């Protein structure tokens, strides 16, 4: 990513502002232009680094790194490891097969609410296939999968001693001035 055009645009904006201030302001902007260029470049790098950190937090366990090659920053994206969709659907089906229907924390036939969910095409296909294998509709399969996951999560929370902290593997990258 070449920052030169961004730095140049800000320099032109300062020059335009200086025109309104007269000859004294124009002379001041000309004297400060060299110093301002490096300060602007560093500020842009700070903003890009903060953006990369924020994206990394949202993308975890994937990451986004900001790297400098000379004066030009570049992004390196490491996507989170993806379990093949077929294996994910098989795992979900196996988990659902081991969960008795009457132990679900939420009744499947209770009051209904509607939500819209956007799924990647491959995931949708894997869910449809898993539902067909069980002889269920996609909706019934998703309701059962969600209820089973909530039940498992609830049981896991009750089995943890109070005050215990979860430890996750995190990777921090970036640069410091």
Structural write-up:
The protein has 177 residues and is mainly α. The chain is built from five helices and two strands. Helix 1 packs antiparallel against helix 2, helix 3 runs parallel beside helix 4 and helix 4 packs across helix 5.
List strands and helices in order, with pairings.
Blueprint: H1 4-21, H2 23-59, E1 63-69, E2 72-78, H3 85-97, H4 121-134, H5 138-159
Helix pairs in contact: 1-2, 3-4, 4-5
Provide a brief overview of the structure:
The protein is mostly helical. It has helices at 4-21, 23-59, 85-97, 121-134, 138-159, and strands at 63-69, 72-78.
Report the C-alpha radius of gyration, rounded: 27 Å
Cα-to-Cα separation, first versus last residue: 20 Å
Biggest β-sheet: count, sense, barrel?
A: 2 strands, antiparallel
Helix content: 55-70%
* Helix and strand sequence: HHEEHHH
As laid out across the biggest beta sheet, the strand order is 1-2
Instruction: Label the structural class.
Output: mainly alpha
Q: Please count the beta strands (DSSP E, at least 2 residues each).
A: 2
Chain oligomer state: single chain
Unreliable stretches (pLDDT < 50, length at least 5) are none
Tell me the strand percentage band: 5-15%
Number of helices: 5
Average pLDDT for all residues: 76
Globally, the shape reads elongated
Question: What are the key terms here?
Answer:
mainly alpha; 2 strands; elongated; 177 residues; two-stranded antiparallel sheet
